[in-house]
Amino acid sequence: MPVKISRVSLVALLGAAAAAAALLTAPSPLRTPASAGIVRIPATEPAAQSPAPPATAPTSAPSGTARPGGGPDLPGATPIGSLPPVVDHGPRTGNKVALTFDADMTEAMRHQLRSGAVRSYANLKIIERLERERVPATFFLTGMWVEQYPALTRRLAANPRFELANHTYGHLAFTPDCYGLPRIADRKMTADVARTFDLVAEYGGRQTRYFRFPGLCHDRQALEALAPLGLTVVDGDVVSGDPFAKSWRPVVRAALDGVRPGSVIILHVTEANAPMTDEALPHILAGLAERGLEPAPLSEVLGQG
Ligand SMILES: [Zn+2]
C-alpha cells in the first residue's frame, strides 16, 4: 500500500528532522530556579539517619513512596515528591567531563528497523572504542531501545565504567512544542518514565536516577509530573549536534569548543540517526586529552559519585 508507506516514511522523516533540530539547539530555556549550573542534591538516606527496624518488625514501608527502578542511594536520587532539579553541568573545578550518549528509539524508528529501511540504531563502534580504551561514559536509554537491544544493554550494564540513565520509553515530547516530536499525554508522563526506570533496572550495573527529556524539552508541568519519581533531570552544556551529521568535523568542533571542567557532552549512540559519531569520537577523546580533561561517569562529574 503505497499510501501507507509514504505516510510512515514522512512520519519517520519528520521525527528524524525533529530529532536533528532538537539536538542542534541550545538547552531548553525553561529551568527550575535551582537549575543554574550545578545542583547539590541533599542526602536522602533515611536509613542512615535512623536505626534499622528490628528484623521481627512487620514490614511497613510507607505506601505511595515506591521508587521504580531503584532506591534513594542511587546517584541522582532526590526526595520523592520534590520538583526535580535540572542540571547542565558539574562544578567547574577539577578536570572531569561526562560523555553522555542518548539511545533514542521512537515508533517511527522501530518501523524503519522492522521494514529493513535502516540497519541499526545501535552504534557498536562507539561502544567497542569506549570498551577498548576504557573510557567512562553514561548512556541515556529509551525503554524501546532497551527492548530492541537487550544483549547490548546487558553489555553496557556489565561495564563498571558505564552508568545507565533514563531517556523516556519512546522518545515522545513532554512539552506542547518540541521540534515536532509527537507528544505524550500529560497523564502518561509519570508512568512512561517510571516504566523506563523499571526496564533499565532489570539489567543491574551502575543504575542512576538521572533522566533526560527528548529534545531537552521541559516545562513546569513536565517537571511536576516527574516529582513522584525522585530523579534529577540532566540537560548538558555541550551539544555536539551529532544527529544526522554529514561529517565528523563539525561534531568534534561542537564537542570541544565549549567544553570545560564539569561539562556534560551530549552525543548519540543511534548509528543510523547519528552516523558520524563513531568517527568523531577518537578526535573528541584526543581533544579532551589535549585540554587536560578526563572523561568520567556522570555521577562523578556532578559530584555525586
Ligand atoms: Zn533523544
What does this structure look like?
With 305 residues, the chain is α/β, with parallel strands linked by helices. Strands 1, 2, 3, 4, 5, 6, 7, 8 and 9 form a nine-stranded parallel β-sheet that branches. Helix 9 packs parallel to helix 10. It is built from eleven helices and nine strands. Bound molecules: zinc ion (ZN). Zinc ion binds at residues 102, 104, 167, 171, 214. The site of zinc ion has 5 residues, from loops.
Supply the key terms.
305 residues; alpha/beta; TIM Barrel; 9-stranded parallel beta sheet; 11 helices
Summarize the structure.
This protein is an alpha/beta fold. It is built from 11 helices and 9 strands. α1 (2-24) crosses α3 and α9 (248-257) packs parallel to α10.
Write the SSE topology.
Blueprint: H1 2-24, H2 46-49, E1 86-87, E2 96-103, H3 107-115, H4 124-132, E3 137-141, H5 143-148, H6 150-158, E4 162-166, H7 189-201, E5 206-211, H8 220-226, E6 232-234, E7 238-239, H9 248-257, E8 264-268, H10 277-290, E9 294-295, H11 298-301
Parallel strand pairs: 1-6, 2-3, 2-8, 2-9, 3-4, 4-5, 5-6, 7-8
Helix pairs in contact: 1-3, 9-10
The protein binds zinc ion (ZN).
Zinc ion binds at residues 102, 104, 167, 171, 214.
First-last Cα distance: 53 Å
**Strand fraction band?**
5-15%
CATH class term: Alpha Beta
- In sequence order, what are the helices and strands, one letter per element? HHEEHHEHHEHEHEEHEHEH
Overall pLDDT confidence: 84
The helix count comes to 11
CATH superfamily: Glycoside hydrolase/deacetylase
Shape verdict: globular
